[in-house]
Amino acid sequence: MSDFMVFSLVPLTVAVIICMTCALLGNFLVLRRQSLIGDAISHVALPGIVVSFLLTGTLASTAMMLGAGASALVTVAMIELIRRLGRVEISAAMGVTFTSLFAVGVLLLEWHQASGVHLDVEHALYGNLESLIWFDGTGPAALFDPAALADLPPQLARVAWVGLVVVIFVAVFRRHLILGSFDPDFAASVRAHPALVDLLLVTMVAVAAIAAFEAVGSIIVIAMFICPAAAARLMTNRLRAQIAWSQLFAVVSAVLGYLLAGQGLGWLGFEISVSAAGTIATLAGLILLLACLWGPHRHRTGVAASP
After folding, report:
1. What's the whole-model pTM score?
2. What is the DSSP letter of 144?
3. How far apart are CA 123 and CA 120, in angstroms?
4. Distance set, CA 23 to CA 87, 224, 241, 289 (Å)
5. Which end of the chain is more exposed for a tag (fewer CB within 10 A), N or C?
């Protein structure tokens, strides 16, 4: 019990919160056919975070947010510039911009050799879940000890606050999100402000992705924006049930993925462990594959559903 609380409680909790948060937003991205927005944001955030660290010398959340925000502005300008000068479709301009900026971020990481401060390619891609150790969590009594709770890794509080903000956002704008997802024209006609809600949704996706970046890396964030919601979409034709399914798939992916990463190969006789974030993302993909093969609504060609 003591070892679990010290080494696994915080990483597992962070993984569950991030997976559920991304899956909740992912439901509306899937319905709007905008699933790759999470991928795009994760790509363009990396160079902004790296440049922010190089300028400030800190990985504080405020600096990371500002760097990622500046990177997003540069991204919008680059997409428009490429579209106009190259006279290409916006999807092509976005593809070139996203991949180029992500490559720039990776090159900056390698060039400045920032691994000594936990900002390197491995942490950027696969996250840093295993290092979220709660040294004062030596027993159940630590859960009620203010001094021990003060020593919790700061990533836990950060992702918890982001998860709470996302839940409040979905609860407050639920009607607007539903109308904008199923019929944007009708949403505009009843003054549901679909353009504003779209902007807020993308903002929430960006906030969730950036907050999760340091702890879980970009791979798991991208997977969780897509896989649980897409799998849930194949299980039901009602939005409430879809959200419930996506949350279940997110929790299963996080818990089983973390367990298999640490113990799975040991059960097979190999005394090694693998990346928790990578295993969680892989398990989410397998769940989506199973839903594609045996989901009740796997033969549906459209995205229509009932609220």
Report:
1. 0.83
2. G
3. 5
4. 36, 6, 13, 16
5. N
